[in-house]
């Protein structure tokens, strides 16, 4: 009887293919699966951050200032510290919103301010100065909208208004308030 030896060549080729496949599957993992720390690390940090939006005529429409801005490339968002948002439109009273924290989303098309937001509106030709206080404020500059669903206190020389939520359109000057309680102070 003739004894046959084990066919080593096909077995060694199969073994090499298994090792290469395993190595490739480990090497080609997505970045998110390999390194979750990179998602929480900013790609850009700026001290004394300031950005302005200009109209087509070159007038400043609004300014966003912050003591520190950290940008995250994963979702194109930015975290802000000590935020000041100033809306300045020609012929309109200046609006200034301040908060200890904020975030920019969608390249600055959405500004979220939180941590005790205070908005001051200068007096206009037909309106007294106003002060608005809310825990959280969302500003959509392109849509000229400011809104909050976290409660709001609106104060002026003529009274106070407490509301559960509000939406302000800065172009039409219309404020929609929900579940409100108002106090009117008559002039003396």
Summarize, please:
With 188 residues, this protein is mostly beta strands. It has helices at residues 8-27, 31-34; strands spanning 44-54, 60-72, 77-87, 95-105, 110-121, 130-140, 145-148, 152-156, 159-169, 174-184.
Note down, in words, how this protein is organized.
The chain has helices at 8-27, 31-34; strands spanning 44-54, 60-72, 77-87, 95-105, 110-121, 130-140, 145-148, 152-156, 159-169, 174-184. It has 188 residues and is mostly beta strands. Strands 1, 2, 3, 4, 5, 6, 7, 8, 9 and 10 form a ten-stranded antiparallel β-sheet that branches. A hairpin with a 7-residue loop joins strand 3 (77-87) and strand 4. The protein starts with 7 loop residues before the first helix and ends with a strand. The model has no long low-confidence stretch (mean pLDDT 83).
Number of helices: 2
Main sheet: strands, sense, barrel: 10 strands, antiparallel
Radius of gyration over all CA atoms, rounded: 29 Å
Q: What does the average pLDDT come to?
A: 83
């Amino acid at each position: 009887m003739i004894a046959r030896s084990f066919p080593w060549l096909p077995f060694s080729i199969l073994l090499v293919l298994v090792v290469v496949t395993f190595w490739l599957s480990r090497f080609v993992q997505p970045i998110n699966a390999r390194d979750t720390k990179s998602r929480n690390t900013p790609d850009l940090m700026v001290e004394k951050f300031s950005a302005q939006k200009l109209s087509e005529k070159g007038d400043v429409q609004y300014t966003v200032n912050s003591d520190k801005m950290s940008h995250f490339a994963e979702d194109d968002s930015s975290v802000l510290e000590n935020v000041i948002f100033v809306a300045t439109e020609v012929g309109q009273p200046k609006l200034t919103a301040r908060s200890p924290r904020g975030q920019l989303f969608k390249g600055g098309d959405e500004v979220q301010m939180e941590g005790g937001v205070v908005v001051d509106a200068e007096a206009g030709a037909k309106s007294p100065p106003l002060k608005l206080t809310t825990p959280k404020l969302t500003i959509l500059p392109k849509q000229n909208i400011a809104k909050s669903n976290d409660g709001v206190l609106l104060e002026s020389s003529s009274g106070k208004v407490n509301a559960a939520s509000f939406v302000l359109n800065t172009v039409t000057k219309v404020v929609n308030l929900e579940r409100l309680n108002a106090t009117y102070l008559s002039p003396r």
